[in-house]
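Everyone, describe these structure tokens:
***
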Amino acid sequence: MVGILHPGAMGAALGSALKARAGAVVWADAGRSHATAKRAELADLVAVPDVAELARRAHVIVSICPPHAAAAVAQEVAVAVADRPDPPLYVDANAVAPATVREIGALLGAERVVDGAVIGPPAWEPGRTVLWLSGAAAPAVADLFAGTPFTARVLGTELGAASALKACYAVQTKALPAVWAVLAAAADAYGVQDALREQLTGDGVDLDAHLDALHARAGAKAWRWAGEMDEAAAALAAVDVPDGVSRAAAEVYRRMAERPH
């Protein structure tokens, strides 16, 4: 049996993908929203009362939650499985820094924790989304996803490797696009926005198109992207790489969440 914490858009897709191999996929409905319950229903996931019950029953637990909640979710699971003679495999598929995953490994047992990084959209058909995995038990988790819409790839045995890859990739997909919001906000503040647009247009750059694309992609997810950029910054800083671009992007998305476009 597999447990999903928690079935947002990506979690529902992961749970649905695992049904054929796992037999049953459960989720914890205590305190979750109606939207979460509806996604779980559409994905044919089975509700259990709470995280503790899920942790007691599941053989594999997949954590896919907002980055800032990853450690707290792992702590809930650790409490629930403390007396289990056969603790579950725990797949942390969150967009967190490698150090966060290693802390979760220390909490739950490094040999039982798999570092996961989803790159791509929620996968309902093959070919678009890769699930990178690292850790001692990564091959076993990859086998679970064989034949599913998620292409599972094992990156190695080191906890944190998959999260490091996701952090580096996110600099390109989320930090760099935030630069358009930064330069537009500065130009507006200085009153040179029209001149900037004219200059960029002469260079073949459509500033408004870039801004519209940024808001379309981030949209209601801006608050979550802020947390991911915080974790990416921590990943960069840990290896003495300048982290300012990710910190700035985190602030852009926090402001975007507070003042939707």
